[in-house]
Request: fold
Amino acid sequence: MATRSAAKAHRQSLKKRLRNRIVKSATKTAVKRAVESIASGDMAVARDVVRTALQTLDRAAQKGVVHANNAGRRKSRLLLRYNAAVAAMQVITEKPVPVKAKAASRSAKPAGKKAPVAKSTAKKAKK
Reply:
């Protein structure tokens, strides 16, 4: 028979395990939905789903279910994926812009000598 304190600690760990499992599962589901919405190509919907996933990861880290660095790493990877998808969509929709030739108007400066630079007239005092 275990000690009373060990038995109580075991009961507490079982309760915490159930609570943590719920949060961890919800976090994984939110991230999975975000990845799927990014892959679908609808960036308006993906933005909202990604935002929800980021909030869920922050909440899990705050509760101690996942480590703060783990949550940060997952958020970073998710945002990289989202931003890459947004950039890819912009490349497809943008039209190429023609490059303009440089203007050859340099008439603002007259050709010839440069203006003389004013020299200091103050002489150093001798000791």
